[in-house]
């Protein structure tokens, strides 16, 4: 097996190397950042051979190629395919996705995931590291997460600053149960590279409160200090499209009505308005948290660079530009957004009825057997 360079240039300032493993039946493309995992490669060009070793913490991506068209991305915990959400066409590498004009010109890059999808977590790491590597000199990279609530922002900041231990951080921030395998790497990379992390979501106690007092009752129910943790009350009501989608999903979960058409669901909603209000508060709060990055731009951003916020959340919050994007348009209409939706799919086949216009980019994943 020979290993030949894809690019003739390996800038010493870059911590990435691109090379291709070539066998008679398959070619694999790979990008690896160097830190702890040892990588050995051989360069063969113009009868020149050179062997080097580097440290790499993460296996970034390798693309199984058929002819000259890359169709399947092989990752640590499984495989994935990338599609255009606009027309379903197959796209190439992850790097070409987050380096596309749509993503590079965005103010907010949404990444919608299924929370138990390990392949999605691999991809999130790739995207964050890639954004930092390629754009940190021209944009102020910010990581934003659904899984931490606004009332633990100080704890997040203290951990990133090295003032508290990771054990304290996990306990005090109420980190999700799958923090270790799903989100720890993101936060550690942010910590190591001085990337701010936004605890973006509404505290659960206020989500419970809105179910009791209703959307219109929140303004008088909240104590003044609590109002700083949430968007201005009352938040805008959920859109009809969002409400209909939520009812359709609940129909599928409860069974027996999963095939109900939109008119039937609209005529007979399955969930009470208070439940819609609660879901809507999560989206509004995350949108307000994202908008706040740009409101505080002059005071907080390093070197005056324009922010690019990478927000990771569940797919429902961003699919079809419903949920968070709807509220973000109200809080900061000038912002440009780009969305990625990543969902498990055994055949990794793009379906127009499910995936068309779900996002700018749709990634379908399939876990390795050992990861299932």
Could you describe the 3D structure shown?
The chain is of the alpha/beta class and 372 residues long. It has helices spanning 94-98, 101-104, 118-135, 153-160, 166-172, 179-182, 184-192, 204-213, 218-221, 224-227, 240-254, 262-267, 273-295, 297-300, 324-331, 352-355; strands spanning 2-5, 16-22, 27-33, 37-45, 48-56, 61-66, 69-75, 78-84, 108-113, 140-149, 197-201, 307-314, 337-344, 361-367. Helices cover 36% and strands 27% of the residues. Strands 1-2-3-6-7-8-14-13-9-12-10-11 form a 12-stranded mixed β-sheet, sandwiched between helices. A two-stranded antiparallel sheet has the order 4-5. The chain is globular. The two termini are 31 Å apart.
Quick summary:
The protein has 372 residues and is an alpha/beta fold. It contains 16 helices and 14 strands.
Key terms:
12-stranded mixed beta sheet, alpha/beta, 372 residues, two-stranded antiparallel ribbon
Q: Can you lay out the helices and strands and say which pair or pack?
A:
Blueprint: E1 2-5, E2 16-22, E3 27-33, E4 37-45, E5 48-56, E6 61-66, E7 69-75, E8 78-84, H1 94-98, H2 101-104, E9 108-113, H3 118-135, E10 140-149, H4 153-160, H5 166-172, H6 179-182, H7 184-192, E11 197-201, H8 204-213, H9 218-221, H10 224-227, H11 240-254, H12 262-267, H13 273-295, H14 297-300, E12 307-314, H15 324-331, E13 337-344, H16 352-355, E14 361-367
Parallel strand pairs: 9-12, 9-13, 10-11, 10-12, 13-14
Antiparallel strand pairs: 1-2, 2-3, 3-6, 4-5, 6-7, 7-8, 8-14
Helix pairs in contact: 8-13, 13-15
